Amino acid sequence: MSTPTIPIIKTTHSNLANFNMNEIAFGKHFTDHMLVADYEDGAWKHVAIQPFSPISLDPSSAVLHYGQTIFEGIKAFKNDKGEFVIFRPDQNLIRFNVSAARMEMPQVPEWLFMEGMKQLINVESGWIPTTPDSSLYIRPFMIATDPYLGVRPSLTYKFMIILGPSGPYFSAPMKILIEQKYTRATPGGVGFAKNGGNYGASLHPVELAKQKGFDQILWTDANEHKYVEEVGVMNVMFVIDGKVITPSLERGTVLKGVTRDSSIILLREMGYEVEERNLSVDEIVAAHKKGVFQEIFGVGTAAVVSMIKQLAHGDYLMDFDPENMPIAKALKQALHEIRMGRKADKHGWMVKI
């Protein structure tokens, strides 16, 4: 089957010339164009790249009442060779459709997700920043658009991709509180799906943690608050006695992160032992008291590798020196070198546009 042609409607008033690429923050700036497609009568229709603008929704649209919405986060870069590249978007497509299946939404075909993304980035290539720790952030998402208040899956949907030049998600090492009351996800729930509800439900407990002087929270399991899961909006990795440990995916409560998977592969290639397993708070505290809890860092698309300088369990504080995290630093450097084309991309992670 040939790839359908995607019409491109160019804006007559670009904002690029007046945009300062040296003053970019994460998630605050957007490019001139977006991709839009509608799902109707069992098919994707009206696909187009058009000027970035507000969209019209009926007040009774299902997304506004029942939260049928999913999204992804991807990054594009301009490497040292001057090429425009995207980091592992095929994995995001797979996860997007896993999320869609869990939320009873239609699958998005590869041509729409991948080719639509590539063509949109081609149009907006001038927006890709080259300052340190910056990228073009790519946000594909889908919402339910049925104007109907009955509780059932929507019959119509809108798929969109928007782009924005972005700086680092976390600009400084973080202070993290281990959560002992609230829950991010439960077995059998939607923790593995990248849907809006997961993030909306996290806002209140994170705000409570911020009121205590912390930047984010480390989620624990719903049953006992005994085992660690994710840190804020990232996967998390611990270095204990020289071994890298990251929470297992087996309970379906931890997001299968693309950066998580990439990090595990690279760390093992660098000679580090990596374990994917249940890790209890008690084990973490005991390791700290023993002096063998050496590093803790988050990994994710937005944050890439983000250092954690303090972890708190109640009144017990575990402090770390972000400058003395050799494993986290080596991982961050390895990911950066692959993205910039300075290191061989032997896994074929970088997709050229």
Protein model, in words:
The structure is a single chain. With 353 residues, the chain is α+β, with helices and mostly antiparallel strands. It has 2 domains: 16-166, Aminotransferase class 4, branched-chain amino acid transferase, N-terminal domain (D-amino Acid Aminotransferase, Chain A, domain 1, 2-Layer Sandwich); 174-339, D-amino Acid Aminotransferase, Chain A, domain 2 (Alpha-Beta Barrel). It has 8 helices and 17 strands. The strands form 2 sheets. Strands 8, 9, 10, 11, 12, 13, 14, 15 and 16 form a 9-stranded mixed beta sheet that branches. Strands 1, 2, 3, 4, 5, 6, 7 and 17 form an 8-stranded antiparallel beta sheet that branches. The two termini are 21 Å apart.
Question: What gap, in angstroms, lies between the N and C termini?
Answer: 21 Å
What's the helix count?
Answer: 8
> What integer is the average pLDDT?
95
> What share of residues is helical?
10-25%
CATH class of the largest domain: Alpha Beta
Low-confidence stretches: none
**Integer-rounded radius of gyration:** 21 Å
Structural class: alpha+beta
How large is the share of residues in beta strands? 25-35%
Q: Classify the oligomer.
A: single chain
> Mind telling me which CATH architecture of the largest domain this is?
Alpha-Beta Barrel
Query: Please, how many domains?
Result: 2
CATH topology of the largest domain: D-amino Acid Aminotransferase, Chain A, domain 2
Could you describe the largest sheet, including whether it forms a barrel?
9 strands, mixed
Name the CATH superfamily assignment of the largest domain: D-amino Acid Aminotransferase, subunit A, domain 2
H/E element string? EEHEEEHHEEEHHEEEEHEHEEEHE
Topology, number of strands: 17
The geometry reads as globular
